[in-house]
Design brief:
The complex is a heterodimer of chains A (334) and B (232).
Chain A lengths: L12 E10 L2 E11 L4 E5 L6 H9 L7 E8 L8 E4 L3 H8 L4 E4 L3 H4 L6 H13 L5 H14 L16 H13 L5 E5 L7 H16 L3 E5 L3 H7 L2 E6 L2 E7 H6 L4 H8 L53 E2 L14
Parallel strand pairs in A: 3-8, 3-9, 6-7, 7-8
Antiparallel strand pairs in A: 1-2, 1-4, 4-5, 9-10, 10-11
Helix pairs in contact in A: 4-5, 5-6, 6-7
Chain B lengths: L2 E9 L5 E10 L4 E5 L6 H8 L7 E6 L2 E2 L9 H5 L1 E4 L3 H4 L6 H10 L10 H11 L16 H12 L6 E5 L7 H18 L2 E5 L3 H7 L2 E6 L2 E8 L4
Parallel strand pairs in B: 3-8, 3-9, 6-7, 7-8
Antiparallel strand pairs in B: 1-2, 1-4, 4-5, 9-10
Helix pairs in contact in B: 4-5, 4-6, 5-6, 6-7
Chain lengths: 334, 232
């Protein structure tokens, strides 16, 4: 399951300026993401950072009370033209994006898959929902076969009900459901939380294998060890903002943002010291750097909100929003 | 010994025994970690020790008193001496109550002899002792993070000043920082109270940092003698 460090390809799926505001509560503030085919990107951060909201926004699944801004740029391939979608446009997301170009691998297959119907009938339904009701039987079967073989779900299980297969097989069925519409961007929200270690490992292995097979994969997780295991890129989200983004190996070895460093220090395999204080709730932070009240490195300049910039040194793949990054080149600290 | 268990076996209904002949001693102030793969009986052991599930065989003594009844029939005095923190804080509190009401509940249910004169002040004290800001007490569960809610559950579990605290996958839903924070709060409370702690988790790295000794279960049996680890 070691991450293959595929080079980023020319045509990533792009998220630009994603902003989400629940009534009176600004939750996500201008998040940009580049999700390249063959790459697995992990979004990490404490609970409440807005990670799940990002996933729901990309699928058009936020409640109507949420104001969403920003755009989703989907690259074309041989079969489909490129598509630029306003993320506030839920109907386009529902009709042309969700399940077709972008799909969700559920956190808990046992609550996602209907217990009263066979796996095959649910896969058929999903395939028809994407391709149209009048799709010939043979085409539906072919789509289901492609998805189940990619998910390593044996054919002889398809006529069983969910309770007649094991947890791991159900997880494979859930992945097949996500793949059956032909989506090239897979999203997973906390794929390991609450799962026992064997199932968690299977879930991560599946996502890694999909990236290796050419899909763009975005995993939202608070499980830093999972991110370290499978991610190519890591995005650190704090209070709805990207505070650091880097290649996974670089980020886990030398975190640049004090928040990233604090998160890593809280792992039992490291210092096992929590980040001091609590993260701000939506709309609770004042001006300046949002992490300032919890930051041991804060100084006068932090009264101004920092922009995402490349820290000193030559690592152009890393950006950090900090006036005093921990990996600044010698002499460039203020 | 605060917890003294001999030959504990347990089953669900007429099913097979999922816990077989488990011996466990936990001294005052000691933390024993219980780990093992899924299905090994960890959570069943936690349920027996927290008086929720009656064992099929064996004996259990808590703080010098033999346990004879489990579940709803368990002796109220023993239940008050046994605190539990469950895996999912969202499932463990009433979503309609604010955190203050959640923490106050065991105080309000206390028998006459154990009632505190000022419940409000005692809740403030308990909340402060687990690092919950006073402003959070007026919020309901959906308005706080998992980590904050789990700290409220800890405050509620220790409100009756238990002799033993059972933590059943207490951190499984939490992010790394909230996990470290909660474990530090449990340890700090334990140092003040001298209670015994049983920490159930599938996370061996976490138990390695948290517990004094480790009990490894597999298919319902203890498979490895206690490993003594350095307390940090």
């Amino acid at each position: 399951m070691s991450p293959s460090r595929n080079p980023p390809e020319a045509h990533p799926t792009t998220v630009r300026g994603l902003t989400v505001t629940f009534p009176g509560l600004p939750t996500v503030h201008g998040v940009d993401l580049d999700l390249a085919p063959g790459r697995l990107t992990a979004v990490v951060g404490e609970s409440g950072a807005g990670k799940s909201v990002v996933v729901a926004a990309l699928l058009g699944l936020l409640p109507r009370s949420a104001q969403v801004g920003g755009t989703l740029g989907l690259p074309g391939d041989g079969r489909t033209p490129p598509l630029q979608v306003d993320l506030a446009d839920r109907s386009t997301l529902a009709r042309h994006v969700r399940g077709r170009r972008v799909s969700l691998v559920p956190q808990s297959p046992s609550t996602w898959i209907t217990p009263v119907r066979t796996l095959r009938s649910q896969l058929d339904e999903a395939a028809r929902a994407v391709r149209g009701r009048r799709t010939p039987r043979a085409d539906v079967d072919a789509a289901v076969r492609r998805a189940t073989s990619r998910a390593h779900l044996p054919d002889d299980l398809l006529d069983r009900y969910p309770h007649e297969v094991s947890g791991g097989q159900l997880q494979r069925a859930a992945l097949a459901l996500a793949l059956v519409g032909g989506a090239r961007l897979l999203l997973a929200d906390e794929p390991t939380t609450g799962l026992d270690p064997e199932l968690a490992e299977l879930a991560l292995g599946q996502l890694r294998a999909e990236a290796d097979a050419g899909a763009a994969v975005l995993v939202v997780t608070h499980d830093l060890e999972a991110a370290e295991l499978v991610a190519d890129e890591v995005v650190v989200l704090y209070a709805g903002r990207v505070v650091e983004q880097a290649r996974a190996d670089a980020l886990f070895e030398t975190p640049a943002h004090p928040y990233t460093a604090g998160l890593l220090d809280s792992l039992p395999g490291r210092a096992f010291v929590p980040v001091p204080g609590d993260p701000p709730g939506p709309g609770e932070h004042g001006s300046g750097c949002v992490f300032r009240p919890r930051c041991a490195h804060a100084f006068d300049a932090c009264a101004q909100a920092p922009a995402l910039t490349h820290p000193g040194g030559t690592d152009r793949s890393r950006v950090v929003a900090c006036h005093r990054p921990l990996v600044a080149a010698a002499g460039s600290r203020s | 010994m605060t917890v003294h268990a001999r030959g504990l076996s347990a089953r669900y209904g007429r099913g097979p025994r999922v816990l077989q002949d488990v011996d466990l001693d936990v001294a005052p102030g000691e933390t024993v970690g219980v780990c093992g793969p899924s299905g090994s009986g960890k959570s069943t052991l936690a349920r027996v020790l927290s008086l929720l599930h009656e064992p099929a065989a064996g004996s259990l003594t808590v703080d010098g008193t033999a346990v004879t009844r489990w579940g709803p029939a368990a002796a109220p005095t023993l239940r008050r001496r046994t605190g539990v923190v469950f895996q999912s804080p969202r499932a463990a509190v009433d979503p309609r109550h604010d955190l203050r009401a959640a923490i106050a509940e065991p105080l309000l249910l206390a028998p006459r002899a154990e009632r505190v004169p000022n419940v409000r002040a005692r809740v403030d004290e308990l909340a402060a002792s687990v690092g919950l800001a006073p402003a959070l007490l007026g919020r309901r569960p959906h308005q706080v993070s998992d980590g904050q809610l789990q700290r409220a559950c800890l405050a509620r579990a220790v409100a009756t000043d238990p002799a033993v605290l059972v933590c059943d996958e207490m951190t499984a839903m939490l992010d790394a920082s909230s996990t470290a924070r909660l474990v530090h709060e449990v340890t700090a409370w334990q140092v003040r109270s001298g209670a015994a702690v049983v920490a159930v988790s599938h996370d061996a790295a976490l138990l390695g940092r948290w517990s004094d000794r480790l009990l490894v279960l597999r298919e319902g049996r203890v498979v490895q003698p206690d490993v003594v680890r350095d307390r940090r």
